[in-house]
Amino acid sequence: MTDREKIESLRAEIARHDELYYRNSDQEISDQEYDKLKRELVHLEEANPDLALAPENTPTARVGDDRVEGFAKYKHLQGMLSLDNTYSDDELRDFDTRLKKIFPDELSLPYLVEPKIDGVAVSLTYENGRFVRAVTRGNGTEGDEITNNLRGLPDIPEKLAGSKHPKLIEIRGEIYMTDEEFARINQEREDQGLELFKNPRNLTSGTVKQLGGISGRNLHIVLYGIGHCEPLTFKTQSDIHQAIHDWGLRTQEKIWRVEGIEAAWSAIEELDQLRHSFDYATDGAVVKLDNLEWQKEAGFTSKAPRWAIAYKFAAEQAETILKAISVQIGRTGAVTPVAELEPVELAGTTVSRATLHNEDEISRKDIRPGDTVVVQKAGEIIPQVLRSIPDKRPADSQPFDFAAFLQEQGIEAERVEGQAAWRITSKDNPVQMRRRITHFSSKACMDIENLGEAVVDQLVSRELIKDQADLYQLSFEDVLPLEKFADKSARNLIDALERSKQQPLWRLIHGLGITHVGAQASKDIAGHYGSLEKLASVSVEELTAIDGIGGIMAESINAWFADETNRTLVQRLTDYGLNVAEEITQTKDGPLQGKTVVLTGTLPSLSRGEATAMIEAAGGRASSSVSKKTDYVLAGESAGSKLEKAQKLGITVLSEEAFRELVE
Ligand SMILES: NC(=O)c1ccc[n+]([C@@H]2O[C@H](COP(=O)([O-])OP(=O)(O)OC[C@H]3O[C@@H](n4cnc5c(N)ncnc54)[C@H](O)[C@@H]3O)[C@@H](O)[C@H]2O)c1
Q: What is the rounded distance in angstroms from the CA atom of residue 116 to the CA atom of residue 312?
């Protein structure tokens, strides 16, 4: 390949990853791999100045663009740039050497070392201390206005604390999500049979870009700098941190004001020890010239300041043997390849499985069973296989053929058109059967005691059951021979199945495993229609008229009931005597009849479950997000953004006491 061809191919590849990362909130490769591609392109461009392009035409000279349709555009008063980055301490010293050429009289330069937050960049504008606007970085010059999505977050006060506020100021920071919140949302997704999000950063970026609001997801913001400021009274970056902090905004919990690059390096090492205790992910340190006058003198390139550099921490990696490739099949039939590894210590945990993402990733990286592979845990919660080491490969190794592997395993699947994903074609696939039945029996659905994954596995592999209805034709004699079963446990299981027939309708609907339909939606539709028969015959339009049921969910319900196999399943569950029809709760008399109540914060004496049960018993509906359709917000201590939103929308806020009076 000629240099020209290499440059063109790298530019196209980087542009594709940029599009995925900034606009689609997704990524195919790790940040480190991405940075490597970019570095390769920089070197080639430097070696071939005749192939140079205008900054807007090469990814090495422009800021990645996050703008999407549907948001109003806003021009930053001062550009929001990227940062030059390095993974090497030598290059960090080169940065200092370059700056010393600009300030030759200085023996050592004053730096501020800050944690580099791995979130989504945002600019908040405050006018005379009042919050007016939140904007994404966009292309650095112009971003998307996401004010409505962020207003009301606990980290964004409407009014700054203190008195001396600039007339106009752009405050810069990063939006992020905690690992706990990420896990909570993914659990909900799993519950609804939806694909899981890869890492908190991607999810944060997708969340702030939702057109219909951020759907009750908890986001946080840390602020670390400023853009345009009128009047500008600050002399140093340290002063800016102090002011932002004094205004009641969140800043990083620790920054280091140091003299000279060696002291900066020590601060970076200290940060590396500390950073895992922060509740946001950090991917490095940012070293900035502290003096603002000097920053001005050093200036900017087309994409980054010359007075700052990001030193990035290498993601933690380990080498191990890939024992085998297996697949995981989601409840909705998505087939994901998984690496079964020789257990290895990585970032403080033992890792024995890692994701291989999809077929294309396996062939692109040429990963084969028996290979020695490098596993990495970066921002992701799930470790990934980064690459294999061909030199350590067994002599008889063959490239891995995913399609042939699926066939060998008897998994009937096909590749989804235009995607790298595979999906199961046959509903009789044992793995998917197990997932569907385990979901049905789980605590969140029919709550059938003694019917966990291990028991379902045995029942499926002995061909005793194929779907949820088959459970109800099991006899004591069928169950007794199962592993670890004796007279008593076999009897208990049969009794538990019998009892489950009386579970409320919403649990049965949730247990059907309709894509997108979680527990709350099941309660909503059960309360509204009161029977599976009625639900099977309603149109998408009727469904969307119910509070809490959106278009995608309605389509999914409609499609599920249109399927002949599913209709037969419902008929059989009915024949076995399950609770397929019950009183319509929404027309049930009660002080909250037809009312929607949102719970937020900690109540003095009621738990969440108790309060929800009381709302439902009073004929109301408990919802998780505040909207115009909300009638009451029941707020306790540390109520946060939902309470603020309710106040803004003029919704009645109830204390526990007032709530008790209303329902009792
Ligand atoms: N994996 C992929 O496919 C892929 C694709 C595109 C970009 N990326 C990642 O994004 C990076 C490029 O993105 P970028 O241009 O946003 O650069 P960057 O994230 O490396 O650095 C610039 C950004 O850092 C943020 N930041 C966090 N803490 C800061 C602090 N204390 N001071 C100043 N800024 C701070 C700011 O938002 C700033 O815009 C790449 O290096 C890579 O890590 C990955």
A: 8
User: What is the distance between the alpha carbons of residues 58 and 353, in angstroms, rounded to a whole number?
Assistant: 38
In angstroms, the CA 503 to CA 496 distance is 11
Q: Please tell me the distance from the alpha carbon of residue 324 to that of residue 338, in angstroms, as a whole number.
A: 9
Q: Are residues 221 and 78 in the same domain?
A: yes
**Is the domain of 578 the same as that of 625?**
no
Q: Please check whether residues 385 and 483 belong to one and the same domain.
A: no
Catalytic residues: 116
Q: Is the CB of 121 under 6 A from ligand 1?
A: yes
Quick one: which of 219, 265, 225 has its CA closest to 81?
Answer: 225
Whether 85 lines ligand 1, by a CB cut-off of 6 Å, is yes
Q: Give the pLDDT score at 57.
A: 80
Residue nearest to atom 36 of ligand 1 (CA): 121
Q: What is the rounded CA–CA span in Å between residue 394 and residue 453?
A: 36
Rounded Cα distance, 469 and 512, in Å: 10
Q: State the CATH number of the domain containing residue 628.
A: 3.40.50.10190
Q: In angstroms, what is the span from residue 42 Cα to ligand 1's centroid? A: 17
How far apart CA 411 and CA 74 sit, in angstroms, is 50
Pairwise CA distance, residues 131 & 326, whole Å: 51
State the total domains in the chain: 6
Annotated binding site for NAD(+): 31-35, 82-83, 114, 137, 174, 288, 312
**To test the ligand 1 pocket, which listed residue (16, 35, 63, 83) has its Cβ within 8 A of the most ligand atoms?**
83
121 Cα to the center of ligand 1, angstroms: 8
Nearest C-alpha neighbor of 27 from the set 205, 263, 267: 205
d(CA 313, CA 347): 13
Amino acid 331: pLDDT: 67
- Please give the pLDDT value at position 147: 95
Q: How far is the CA of 117 from the centre of ligand 1 (A)?
A: 9
479 vs 6, 143, 266, 365, 482, CA distance in Å?
A: 63, 62, 64, 46, 6
Task: Say what the pLDDT of residue 296 is.
Answer: 95
* 63 located within any domain: no
Going from the C-alpha of 470 to that of each of 5, 364, 429, 465, 566, the distances in angstroms are: 60, 43, 15, 5, 13
Chunked in runs of 10, what are the mean pLDDT values of the chain (664 residues)?
Answer: 90 92 84 88 91 81 89 95 94 97 94 96 97 96 95 93 94 95 85 78 92 86 97 96 96 96 97 89 95 96 94 88 90 85 82 89 93 82 85 92 90 84 80 89 93 94 94 96 94 96 96 89 90 92 83 90 94 95 70 86 83 85 78 85 83 91 86
Best probe residue, ligand 1, of 21, 141, 280 (max atoms within 8 Å of C-beta): 21
- What does 304-318 look like in DSSP terms, one character per residue? SBTTEEEEEPPPEEE
Torsion of CA 582, 586, 592, 594, to 10 degrees: 170
**The CATH number of the domain where 580 resides is what?**
1.10.150.20
Cβ density class 407-418: b for 16+ within 10 Å, e for less: eeeebebebeee
Instruction: Return the CATH number at 29.
Output: 1.10.287.610
492: containing domain: 430-500
CA of 115 to the centre of ligand 1 (A): 12
Sheet holding 282-289, edge to edge: 85-86, 308-312, 282-289, 110-117, 256-259
Query: Is 64 a domain residue?
Result: no
